[in-house]
Amino acid sequence: MTDMTAGIPAARGGSGAPIDAAGMDPRLYNEDQLPTSAAERTWDWLAIAALWVGMVVCIPTYLLASYLINSGMSWDQAVLTILAANAIVLIPMVLLGHAGTKYGIPFPVLLRSSFGPTGAKIPAVARGIVACGWFGIQTWVGGSAIFVILNTLTGGALAGEAMPVLGISLAEFVCFLAFWALHLYFIRNGTESIRWLETYAAPFLLLMGFALLAWAYFAAGGFGPMLSTPSAFDPGQPQEGQFWVVFWPSLTGMIGFWATLALNIPDFTRHAKSQKDQFLGQLVGLPIPMALFAFIASAVTSATIVIYGEAIWDPIQLAERMGGFSIIIALFALIVATLTTNLAANVVAPAHGFSNLAPSKINLKRGGYITAGIGIAMFPWVLVNHIVGWLIAYSALLGPIAGVMLADYYLLRKTKLEVKDLFRMDGIYSGRNGTNWAGVGALVIGILPNLPGFLAGVGITAGTSDFFATIYTYAWFVGLFVAGAAYLVLSKFLNK
Q1: Contact at 8 Å (CB) between 231 and 73?
Q2: Nearest-CA neighbor of 351 among 493, 216, 489, 183?
Q3: What SS3 string covers 209-230?
Q4: Which of 26, 147, 358, 437 has CB 3.0 to 4.6 Å from 175, enough for a Cys bridge?
Q5: What is the pLDDT of residue 17?
Q6: Distance between CA 251 and CA 472 in Å, rounded?
């Protein structure tokens, strides 16, 4: 019989020690999906915190506070809502990150424990498609910043009519493609190049954030009207007594913002030196910087009311209004911020997911190129206008995946995995013909309660009952707990 592992690199165990590759199916792994070795575990808590700072400081994060304030919240209610959402999403981040650090495996490989080696392709690709959408949106934002810089420096010479079909001007599309091409350099050079970029960009981005805050404070003579404006939900205000009606869907949307990373965080924590490093790095790097950046956005925007006579939430528009050399500095910071977020949050995950479809043919680099291609095809300049509804919509999908994974890893497996079997079609995780139907069934069951609200939310149906509309308000929570419970029940009957 031919040795199926001939020419395949030696596999490694969770401790970083080599494991025998005999019996492992070469169709289920490549060099990028093998457990990380001890030498590859170079990320301390500062590196992981820097990773998060690099991802947090981006234009969509800046705009989150504007959405909440426009919904009626005061600045402090908006900041606290964002802080609460990220404290909540930190829990599955750390819990699923534990598996990455303990076993050195990426997200699609961990999925095989609960979905089977074939079934895991479903949630991995679902997570990947969401990331492709975000990749496109972030690339469009970065390209827009480049366009503003060049258009300002040329006195508006780049402005032009929108092209047919695309709906944007030729110059805007060329700037978008230029920023898109910049991503390809880091995709080609792999995860370690991304870590390098995040490590050096994090302090620069924090410095730029505080510099912007200082500029706004002194230019406006203090923070202006917005920080003193009462909540619309206070007594005597237009939306008196309606805070909780707005708070819960807003909280769900804010959780949805990082619910993507809560799934594929093992892609990064597999490089952590220890569990302490992955925990402390995430604790320091996620909730507080998110809330801080939301405050900076609120404070700077309040100052623009005094400086320009109107609230300017879009940092690209703000940089354009600032003019002079400051526009180049500000927009350079925006480009760096967008690049660091996009590479870490929206390239690594789908690259692993697409690689998992055919590991012997698609490595991490090729998966990244596929991500970049799909990101263009999704017309991100159109998608960006529907960002808030999309946050809640995909949280209804990602919550159930997280529920299944957590129930499997902690309640069913007690954090004990046989790493070698994750790379076998006939191993203990193979289910029936490579699919664990308990996982797939639980995923469907977790999605179903949110389906009526989703269909109404995207306009496919005219509406839904108050009951299902209320459930959809808590889409991520409902999906997580329903799918997790369903998985435990189905596992008793289907995996005997």
Answers
A1: yes
A2: 183
A3: HHHHHHHHHHHHCCCCHHHHCC
A4: 147
A5: 52
A6: 12
Q: What are the two backbone dihedrals, phi and then psi, of residue 56, each rounded to the nearest 5 degrees?
A: -70, -45
* Confidence (pTM): 0.86
pLDDT band (50, 70, 90) for residue 496: low
Please, what sign has the CA dihedral across residues 347, 352, 353, 354? Answer: positive
- Give strand pairing partners of 85: none
Tally the residues of the chain.
Answer: 496
Task: Kindly state the tokens that stand for 32.
Answer: 């990028």
Cα torsion angle, 209, 211, 215, 217, sign:
positive
How many other C-beta atoms lie within 10 A of the C-beta of residue 308?
15
Q: What is the pLDDT of residues 122-166, one digit of tens each?
A: 999 888 888 888 899 889 989 988 998 888 888 888 888 889 888
8 A C-beta contact, residue 465 and residue 452: yes
Looking from the CA of 62 toward its CB, the CA atoms found within 13 Å total 25
Q: Which pairs with CB-CB distance under 8 Å and at least 24 residues apart come from 205-210?
A: 205/53, 205/54, 205/57, 205/333, 205/336, 205/337, 205/340, 206/53, 206/57, 206/289, 208/329, 208/330, 208/333, 208/337, 209/57, 209/292, 209/293, 209/296, 210/296
Structure tokens at 235: 């007594």
Distance of alpha carbon 114 from its chain centroid, rounded? Answer: 22
CA pair distance 149, 143, nearest whole angstrom: 10
Residues 429 and 422 sit within 8 Å (Cβ to Cβ): yes
Q: What is the pLDDT of residue 360?
A: 83
